[in-house]
Amino acid sequence: MTGLDFAAVYPVLPELVLAAGAMVLLMMGAWRGDQSTAALSGFAVMLLILAGVLILLMPADKTVAFDGSFVVDAFSRYLKLLVLVGSIGVVLLSVEFLRDLQRRKFEYPILILLATTGMLMLISAADLIALYLGFELMSLSLYVMAAIDRDNARSTEAGLKYFVLGALSSGMLLYGASLIYGFTGTVSFVGIAQAVGDGGLGLTFGLVFLLAGLCFKVSAVPFHMWTPDVYQGAPTPVTAFFAAAPKVAAIAIFMRVSIAAFPGIALQWQQIIVFVSIASMVLGSFAAIGQRNIKRLMAYSSIAHMGFALVGLAAGTSDGIQGVLVYMAIYVAMTLGTFACIISMRRQGKPVEDISDLAGLARTKPVMAFFFAVLMFSMAGVPPLAGFFAKFYVFLAAIQAGLFTLAVLGVISSVVGAYYYLMIVKTMYFDEPAEAFDTMAGELGTVLGVSGLVVLLFSLYPGLLVDAAGAAAKSLF
């Protein structure tokens, strides 16, 4: 390979490593069968780490490849690393799940690799075609993962619902993209930004449909309807994956499309995002109150969290984007730790999902209860935990941009949402103990410990993450 060829391929090297690695692991799995699941999971973690190292070694300058359809900058590197952290965490969370002989499926880690490849491509997409390719590679893998427990009716139903509604969202996204192309004559984000001008009714319609397709992936209202059923029906490690890495990728392209492709009609897309943000925060906070299944509660919690994250994007400023980037990093840490606890809710090898099953956990599993309580307080936004600073940055950006109503409604929604997080803490610490859970697996304990420490200690060392997010945000403008 010549130096010129390597230079052309280098920007997509992490994606190529994951895609090629997934194909090799697929051949190994097909040859050795489901007995190779544990080994393939280990190889998958190694490939994800290698992709992360390649991203860290990339030049700091902005690089554009494939005639402007693929871009590598500080923004994409930050979010790609965040996606890889989420994917590695989910592979570790899945080890206990895959030990079950009936659930041992070698395709599982391969699907995580393929989905992650799609997410990395989505984050670097600089035109509508690359956006759609990354979007569908990610989505198709997620559809299969939702239904991977084929002997479980709820898992199969979750996969079917996700597929049908996902196909609808893809159609809306494509329709919006076709309208945008028709009115601008280009699919490139840079070209669209130059051709948009003051916009027009047709272009605004295209933007609405495009953003509707993206709202589906971040579980934003009114395209959230799949989330509670799929979260509850899918295997819990798969639910953890849905709640973490894909949300980061979808929020990333949400920001890139809005800021890079439509700066000239910021007022139009800001109005859309303000509505979506308020609706998501309010519905997520109020609908979760009546939930008794902890996975459904986490579904509504994720809807609310995406609403909070979109507050920063609605500001449309560099500080707002920085707030979103900080929020998503803290959100991934909190989500992985929370699902480590949920996956550990097992009695005699069988999972339990009711919040009442956590009764008296502080007396039967005090360490698990402590970290779970820390994560719940953080999700509620209680200072000085990381979740407080996540919300502080996005609300501050909204106030600086003059979006006072949005910030006030966000704070009110956060206070309402604190009720169901504190309800879980109350159940663990003040209710009479239920039967003790099985011993927590080592991998789950590792993820829970790391996540808990990140949430606890963030206020002592916030500069590293905040500075990285600031540099990433500036590269988008």
Provide tags for this entry.
about 75% helix; about 475 residues; two-stranded antiparallel ribbon; mainly alpha; 22 helices
Describe this structure in words.
The protein has 477 residues and is an all-alpha fold. 75% of the residues lie in helices and 2% in strands. It has helices spanning 3-9, 13-32, 37-57, 74-93, 95-99, 107-124, 128-146, 153-184, 189-196, 201-217, 227-233, 236-243, 245-261, 266-287, 294-315, 318-343, 361-364, 366-380, 386-400, 404-430, 442-457, 463-474, and strands at residues 63-65, 70-72, 346-347, 350-351. Strands 1-2 form a two-stranded antiparallel sheet. A two-stranded antiparallel sheet has the order 3-4. Helix 7 (128-146) runs antiparallel to helix 8. The longest helix has 32 residues, at 153-184.
DSSP E strands, number = 4
Percentage of residues assigned to helices: over 70%
* Principal-axis shape: globular
* SSE class: mainly alpha
Spell out the blueprint of helices and strands.
Blueprint: H1 3-9, H2 13-32, H3 37-57, E1 63-65, E2 70-72, H4 74-93, H5 95-99, H6 107-124, H7 128-146, H8 153-184, H9 189-196, H10 201-217, H11 227-233, H12 236-243, H13 245-261, H14 266-287, H15 294-315, H16 318-343, E3 346-347, E4 350-351, H17 361-364, H18 366-380, H19 386-400, H20 404-430, H21 442-457, H22 463-474
Antiparallel strand pairs: 1-2, 3-4
